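Side project, low priority. Logging it here so it doesn't get lost.
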Amino acid sequence: RSSPSALHTMAAEKVAHELLTIARDRGCEDSAWEAIFEQLRAHPAALARPAVRKMNLLHQAAYWGHLIGVKGLLDEFHADPGELTGDGMDMDAATVAAAEGHHAVAALLREASE
């Protein structure tokens, strides 16, 4: 039998995967981030990137250049702008944004990292 904390961790990871899929597939849409934030309020542990995922939610918001997503993740959910991607490229969110040409978002993320 799984302990209650193990079940909680598994549930949070399941939600994290669902939210990352939304962010990956629909990260350019305001409605996607509204849905993600609603779920994060109910499941704050889902902010953590599952080990098998390349990017966390902040990396996804940066990739799409979605300022509302980035600001919400930083301000409300205290996402770590210095967390690196898990793909061996070791990029922080500012680097992800810059690589996609989202220079204003990259600047905001660099400022948040200081």
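Brief comment: The CA atoms of residues 17 and 100 lie 23 Å apart.
Revisit when time allows.
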